[in-house]
């Protein structure tokens, strides 16, 4: 595997490292960047011309990862040349009233099973229900490691866009299949948040909108917990996500990030489904807890050699907003743990896709979570 990286600033592309002489050997280019900048047709055309045989895939983001730091440039790009493996992509566009179950299933159905090692999915972050997406890709590819994330839009939550072998657009989802007998993929996933307060029951909800908790207006109850922070909703809600699980026997809780509040209906909208009847608890953390979570995610990565590897980082915008200037420490911790031979790239997202562990291959939608996918060749 060979990897080279670029970044876009001051209206020009700059090489962070250039290591591949023959650009025709590039299999995949990954782009992550500011929504408006990424939307310019010239950027897709630039890579289409420079890497004529590459699949050009990417998304808008809430922060760009390139190496062990949060890159401040408008777009970051990573070009990958596989020496023994290969990739295939599947792209689906959808409209507001389309059946997202069918869209999600068809997306991964298009990828052949032979020699398939893993799938990395990048989706519109505001128009696709991440819970539906995870549930349906699991149905079609139950024994395949599936990771990825939902595109971001900084902290604006206005629009997200996907590049998939054409100009950036909304309401799009793309799956990258990684293939090859000598290709190896592993993933790590950890949050670093702690539950607090009383255990509650979601007594009224529809998909990702919660109306009642313990038979009381959800927003009213939430505000009591937040105290003075309630006046800063929904932004302050990023610091107090919700932990949910099916019942008391369920050992794998998932985190849900607050996206919006509705004063009229006293409801709260989350970045993923919050099913009626589920158990819920509020969560909080400190900076050390988040950084420790990143280290734990990195320790889950299995590497068999020190060859050049691709490290795909998808972390939540909520973590970035909480850590602020210390965000780089999260990425530095990952690099220190897995080694400098792993070239990190990725984005801060509106939702993260990954299994809880290597043993549990079922893909889940997470929020406020650091996920890492490492791909390398023998």
Secondary-structure-derived class? alpha+beta
Cα distance spanning the termini: 9 Å
Tally of contiguous helical segments: 8
Q: Would you count the extended β strands for me? A: 26
Shape descriptor: globular
Strand content: 35-45%
Which spans have pLDDT < 50 for at least 5 consecutive residues? none
Number of domains: 2
Q: Can you summarize the main beta sheet?
A: 8 strands, antiparallel
Helix content: 10-25%
The overall pLDDT average reads 91
What's the gyration radius in Å? 20 Å
Task: Note the topology.
Layout: E1 2-9, E2 12-17, E3 28-33, H1 35-38, H2 41-50, E4 55-60, E5 64-66, E6 70-71, E7 75-81, E8 86-93, H3 100-109, E9 116-123, H4 130-140, E10 145-150, E11 162-164, E12 172-179, E13 183-190, E14 194-206, E15 209-213, E16 216-217, H5 218-226, E17 242-245, E18 254-256, E19 258-262, E20 267-270, E21 279-284, H6 287-299, E22 309-316, H7 317-323, H8 327-338, E23 342-349, E24 351-354, E25 364-366, E26 370-377
Parallel strand pairs: 3-4, 9-10, 22-23
Antiparallel strand pairs: 1-2, 1-7, 3-7, 4-11, 5-6, 5-23, 8-12, 9-12, 10-24, 13-26, 14-15, 14-21, 15-16, 15-20, 17-18, 17-21, 19-20, 22-26, 24-25
Helix pairs in contact: 3-4, 6-8
């Amino acid at each position: 595997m060979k990897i080279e990286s670029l970044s876009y600033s001051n209206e020009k592309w700059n090489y962070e490292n250039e290591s591949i002489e023959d650009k025709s050997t590039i299999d995949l280019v990954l782009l992550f960047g500011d929504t408006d900048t990424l939307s310019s047709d010239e950027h897709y055309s630039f890579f289409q011309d420079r890497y004529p045989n590459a699949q050009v895939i990417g998304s808008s983001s809430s922060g760009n990862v390139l190496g062990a730091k949060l890159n401040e440039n408008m777009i970051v790009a990573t070009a990958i040349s596989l020496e023994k493996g290969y990739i295939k992509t599947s792209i689906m566009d959808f409209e507001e009233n389309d059946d997202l179950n069918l869209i999600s299933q068809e997306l991964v159905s298009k990828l052949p099973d032979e020699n398939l090692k893993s799938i990395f999915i990048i989706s519109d972050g505001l128009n696709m229900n991440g819970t539906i997406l995870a549930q349906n890709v699991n149905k079609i590819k139950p024994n395949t490691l599936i990771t990825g994330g939902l595109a971001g839009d900084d902290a604006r939550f206005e629009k997200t866009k996907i590049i998939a072998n054409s100009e950036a657009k909304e309401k799009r989802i793309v799956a990258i299949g990684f293939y090859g007998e000598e290709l190896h993929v592993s993933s790590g996933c950890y949050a670093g948040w702690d539950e607090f307060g009383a255990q509650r029951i979601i007594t009224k909800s529809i998909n990702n909108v919660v109306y009642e908790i313990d038979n009381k207006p959800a927003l009213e109850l939430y505000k009591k917990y937040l105290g003075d922070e309630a006046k800063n909703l929904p932004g302050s809600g990023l610091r107090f996500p919700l932990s949910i699980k099916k019942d008391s026997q369920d050992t794998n809780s998932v985190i849900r990030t607050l996206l919006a509040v509705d004063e009229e209906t006293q409801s709260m909208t989350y970045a993923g489904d919050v099913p009626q009847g589920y158990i819920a608890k509020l969560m909080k953390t400190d900076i050390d807890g988040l950084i420790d979570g990143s280290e734990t995610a990195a320790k889950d990565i299995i590497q068999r050699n020190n060859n050049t590897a691709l490290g795909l980082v998808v972390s939540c915008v909520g973590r970035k907003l909480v850590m602020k200037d210390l965000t780089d420490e999260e990425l530095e911790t990952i690099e220190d743990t897995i080694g400098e031979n792993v070239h990190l790239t990725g984005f801060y997202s509106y939702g993260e896709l990954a299994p809880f562990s290597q043993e549990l291959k079922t893909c889940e939608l997470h929020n406020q979570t650091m996920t890492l996918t490492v791909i390398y060749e023998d």
